[in-house]
Amino acid sequence: MLNALILTLVLHVSGQIDIMCEELKTISSTCKSNPSSTKSLVKLHQKIISLSNNIEKFFSFVALLQFIWNTLVICSIGFMVVISLDTNTESKSGVMIQFIIPYLAVTIEAFVFCFAGEYLSTKSRSIGDAAYEAVWYDLSISECRILLFVILRSQKRLTITAGNVMDLSLEGFTSIMKASASYISVLHAMY
């Protein structure tokens, strides 16, 4: 449920970002008919940032607990696999199948959180790109300045963190997997 909620919220924010990028692409034609359209874009951008910050506040601690738990479970499952492979049982394949399903479930759960953070971060960069690619040379000087502020504000990417310790990204996912593998090898060496 928690993974579905975070994915839904991130997809909603990214949909709002897509709407803003489309409005930035057509800014020169809308500014001639409606001079306050650049100000409405700034308000939309502020709402997107605010919604992203609210998602970050809600999911930051939850994501930290989730990653600590997932790391412990991955290490435990890996250690049990190492122990079961060292025993002289004939049904090693049956033991491996028992451990693969929970391992995949925990790994996919960690991946979903990291993918949501990476997707939000990537989408937030597209605002600055769309503002830069807009036909800003057809706008008035004051509207160009407003557009410049949108570009400057979009330089700070939107992220979801795990307890303000690490960004949820695919890089963070690989570091979690590397840490889990190294813990498994240490436990195996000690056993």
Automatic annotation (TrEMBL):
Domain of life: Eukaryota
InterPro entries linked: 7tm6_olfct_rcpt
Primary localisation category: membrane
Record's keyword annotation contains Transmembrane: yes
Compartment list: Cell membrane
A GO cellular component entry from the record: plasma membrane
Signal sequence interval, chain numbering: 1-15
TM stretches of this protein: 58-83, 95-122
Swiss-Prot/TrEMBL GO biological process terms: signal transduction
This protein's UniProt keywords: Cell membrane, Membrane, Olfaction, Receptor, Sensory transduction, Signal, Transducer, Transmembrane, Transmembrane helix
Name this polypeptide is given: Odorant receptor 67c-like
Organism of derivation: Dinoponera quadriceps
Gene that this polypeptide is encoded by: LOC106751463
